Amino acid sequence: MSLLREPILALSRSDRVRDALVRTPVTRGVVERYVPGETTADAVRVAGELAADGLHVTLDHLGEDTLDVAQSWATVDAYHELLTALADEGLAHRAEVSVKLTALGLALPDDGPQLALEQAQRICRAARRAGTTVTIDMESHAVTDATLMIVHELRRDFPETGAVLQSYLHRTVSDCRTLAHEDSRVRLCKGAYAEPDDVAHTDPEDIARAYVRCLKILMAGAGYPMVATHDPRLIEIASALAARHGRRPGTYEFQMLYGIRPDEQRRLAERGETVRVYVPYGAQWYGYLMRRLAERPSNLTLFARSLVST
Ligand code: FAD
């Protein structure tokens, strides 16, 4: 794993660095590669462009780790506005939403989990009204249990709600077995947070091997696997496993992040695969951007150069 990954992920939690960067206009160029805009109108425009290219979309209103109830409500309002706009533009069959529970107040002391559940239920209700679905993003291991519990609760009324599992966590093979059932939508990713080695694999090859173990379970299961990776080896293995289990395109999907391997996204879609692009939008891009830089420290050179030339 890159020597820079840990320090960059540590910076992703620094309010001081965040405040300095957000005030620096030149960071915009780097941000735009991964975050195409700040407003609902930007999100809907990009969703329309990707849909016109034959791609599906999941939209994430950026924000996380809030301890402010008013901020939690602002996030719910933003999703309401987005879902209404998607329905109005006729995009709800192509675009769903991704939601982080810590943006809804999960980490608030005492009643955080209850608040996050109720707020997520409001978003699921709005999504169903609009004709689309919600996937609950997975965050650091500190909230894995709480997140899976809330997804379980949400699925009582909204069984279409998607879950996310991270192959780097030691527990995930077992979570895959639990979730590989009928009607279950599971996004499998490697995992983007800095995790200690008693809970997570830290060697990239171990993480990839664990990803394959998880893929085997999900592809053999009765649910709907969402293969979220840009890793060419894993994409090939996922395709082979889908074929081995007689899965046709549309009974699973590939997912990639906005701005990463866009040609591969279109190549897979042209081959007849369902491909969904994760599009984050909004002003609170700092944590998201730092996780993307941590995955690709070579992007840091570009980033640092833009700061020096300020
Ligand atoms: P890597 O080995 O990191 O990358 C493979 C190749 O992809 C690289 O060689 C490079 O060519 C390209 N690439 C990867 N990252 C970058 C980058 N930043 N810039 C440029 N090129 C790059 N993580 C979570 O913890 N929780 C979530 O809820 C979550 N949701 C996700 C949803 C989607 C749709 C996707 C695609 C990822 C999500 N992730 C999430 C992030 C994921 O966990 C990984 O951190 C991320 O996808 C990088 O891993 P990789 O599988 O692409 O493999």
UniProtKB/TrEMBL annotation:
It is an enzyme of class 1 (oxidoreductase). Its cofactor is FAD. Pathway: Amino-acid degradation; L-proline degradation into L-glutamate; L-glutamate from L-proline: step 1/2. Residues 47-299 form the Proline dehydrogenase domain. Gene3D superfamilies: 3.20.20.220. InterPro entries: FAD-linked_oxidoreductase-like (IPR029041), PRODH_bac_arc (IPR008219), Proline_DH_dom (IPR002872), Proline_oxidase (IPR015659). Keywords: FAD, Flavoprotein, Nucleotide-binding, Oxidoreductase, Proline metabolism. One of its GO terms (molecular function) is oxidoreductase activity. Its EC number is 1.5.5.2. It catalyses: L-proline + a quinone = (S)-1-pyrroline-5-carboxylate + a quinol + H(+). PANTHER family: PROLINE DEHYDROGENASE 1, MITOCHONDRIAL, PROLINE OXIDASE. This is proline dehydrogenase.
